[in-house]
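quick one, 238 residues, struct below
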Amino acid sequence: MTTPLLQTRGLTARFGGVTAVDQVDFSVQPGELRCLIGPNGAGKSSFFKMLSGQLKPSAGSVTFNGIPLAGKSTAQIAKLGIGIKTQVPNVFDGLTVRESLALAAERTLPPQAAKTRVDATLDRVGIADLADRKVGQLAHGQRQLVELAMVLAPSPDLLLLDEPAAGMTGDEVLRLGDIIVELAKSAAVVVVEHDMAFIRRIGRVVSVLNRGRLLTEGPVAQVLDDQRVRDVYLGRSA
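---
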């Protein structure tokens, strides 16, 4: 077994007297596509925010390539080689799609190399036809893809995607699933979702959170057919 690319140990988030994430041990290997699912209130968002530097853990640790992430900002975490996509698209409405990707690529590359990377990323995400349009003029699903391309442009080793399919149409979700599977050929990907149908389509290994704790994890078909997982999604006791 290789050293995990991303690893948490005893990761915990408390808000007053409420424990949203409770001593979670979690690891992702280089090149792995991992899906993290759970019903509403399971602790997925808090867990994601701790991985991405938006929330300081109450206890436990997060490491990337052996580097502790606790106390680092989202920008510092991104510079280490982690691409972060949040639920709400974080894009520049006044810029064109190409200009937006150039800003992202130039964080890690010189101008000419960044231009080449932008062209390749537009093609890879399938949005080359939108390159010269202002981001503010795009539909929600298109904006989601633009942000995904911006996250991808610096060529991170790990992609953290928080409910990337939220608000998309059925066709857009299918397209996104194909894109994520393709992206996982060159980087590790962690997808946080609650949509079991989407996870069944893209998933390989799935981890399930419930009431802040890791309920189970394993191959996607095995996990999604687990009666305990079905019960927590239906609101029954696990």
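Residues 33-42+73-233 form a domain with the Rossmann fold fold (CATH 3.40.50.300).
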